Amino acid sequence: MTGTVLVRGARLPQPDGSLSGLVDLHVARGRIAAITRAGDTGPATAGPDTAAPGAAAPGTAAPGTAAPGTAVFEAHGRLALPGFVDAHTHAEAAVFRPDVQLALLRQGITTVVAGQDGVSFAPSDRATYDWASTYFAAIDGDHPVFAGGSVGDLLTTYHRTVPVNVAYLAPHGTLRYRVLGAAQRPASDAEIAAMVTLLEQALDDGACGFSTGLEYVPAAYADERELVALARGAAARGLPHVSHMRGYEDRGVEGLAELLRIARASGVATHVSHLHGPAQELLEQIEAARAADHDLTYDSYPYLRGCSILSMVSLPTWLPLADAAATVAALRDPALAGRLAEHFAGLTDLWPRITFASVPGMKWAEGLTLPDVAARLGRSAPDTVVEVLTTTALRASCVFAQPPTNSPESVRTLAEHDAHLAGSDSIYWGGQPHPRGWGAFARFLDEHVRRGSWTWWDAAQHLSARAARRFRLAGRGELAPGAVADLVLVDPGTVRDEATYEHPRTPAVGIEDVLVGGVPVLAGGELTGATPGRGLRPAVG
Question: pTM above the 0.70 mark?
Fold first, then answer.
C-alpha cells in the first residue's frame, strides 16, 4: 500500500457538534498524511470555519490539486468519518462472500470483531473445529479455508484476502469443548488450568479479548470459579471479557450481576454483548458499576427482534446440546417426552414470536412463523420445533420478537448512553436472515443522527472510536494525521437502511465510497475488488 489518495472537499465532525469547513485528506502508505483546507497545502484547523478563502461551496469539489499517480475521491461536501467498527458480528466465515462485503461497506463498516458468544473456529484441533462449525452452523457458517489451528492461523486467513479488517475474540466455549468435550458439568482444577493455558496462547496469538456465551453450551455448564480464572488471563493483558449473559430481558439484571462479580474477582474489564431489556434497571446497575470505577461497556443493535439458533431458544440445557447426534436421539426418545412437554409448556408465549430464518432441508419454512409452519404440518408448536430440529440436526435458526420488557424507548435509551458502542450481531446464513447484518449501522445513523439526538461526532464515537479503544485497535477510530486511513464518506441527507424482515439482504444507501488502509474498497457504491483487509491484533502495553 504505497500509493497515495486524495479525498477532496470533505467535512469533518467536531467535538462541539459542528462540522468543519471543506478539507482535503491526504493519504499515503495506508495512513492519513495530512488534513488541509480544501484546495490548500497548509494544515487545516479543526473548526467550522476552516475552509480557505475561495474554497468550493458545500456540495461541489474543491480546487485542490493532486500529485501525479494520486487517486482522487471527490467528496462533494460529504462527511468523512473513521471506518466503523462492528463490535459484535458473526462474519468470520461470511466475510469472504462478496454480497457480505458489500453489505458491510455500504454501511461504512471497515472492521468487524468476530469470535463472539463463546463459540467460533479457533483455537481448535480438527474435532473442536467440526463441533464449532456444526453447533454454530446457522450462525457462523463454515470457514472456506480454515479447518482448525491457532488464533494466529485464523487471523492469517484474512490477510489481503478480504476488503475489511477482522479482529477476533478467543471463545470460551471452544476452549472448553477442546478440554472437556460436551461434558455437562463444572470443570476440575486441572481442566481449568488447561483452558487458561489455551486462552493465554490465544491472546498471545492476537485475540483482542475473550468471549463467553453463557446461554449456549458448553459454557452454560461453567461456574464462576472457571470464568474468574479465565478472566484473570485477559485482565493480565488489559483485554476485556465480552459476554452473552446467562439471561436478558427480565433476567438481564441478574445476568449483569454475574459479570460484575467475575470482574471484581479477576480485575477484568467487562463488555456486554447485544444488551437489551428494561433500560432503566440496567442503566442503574451500569451507572453504579462505573461509579465504582469498573470498566464496563456494552453494544446493542437498533431492532426489537433477535436471531439465534433454534436449539438455544427452545431447548433445555439438561439435554446434551453440545452433541447434536445425542440431542436428536434424546428428542426422539419416548422416555423423555413427558419431561420435554413440561419444558415446552413454559414457552407458550414464545411460539408466536418465532420466524424461521434458516431451515436446511425445509427451505419452504424460511420466512414463515412457527404457528404457520405448525399449521402446514398439522402439528402443535412444540412438535413442530422437534420436527425442525431433528430434520436439520439442530442446524436451524430463527428470528424472534423480544418480549414486552423491551421497547423502542428502551432500545433508544441504551443506545444514547456513553457506555454504548454499536454492534450488529449480524448473521449472514439462511434464506431469511435478520436484516441487521445489512442495515444496523445505517439505521443508527438515520435514527440517532438524522432523526435523533446524536451529533455526527457522537456517531463517530458510538460506531467507531469506542470500539477501537475497547479492543485496542491502534490507529483506528479517528481521522487525524498518522491514523490508519480507514475512511468512510457519508451523505448526511440520504444515509439509511433499506433492509427489512421481508427483504433482509437489501444494502443500505448513503455511503458509496470507503477506503480501508488507504485503499479504495467501495467506489460509487460498488466493490472495487481490492482486498487490503487484515487480521487485526490488539496493541500491547
Answer: yes
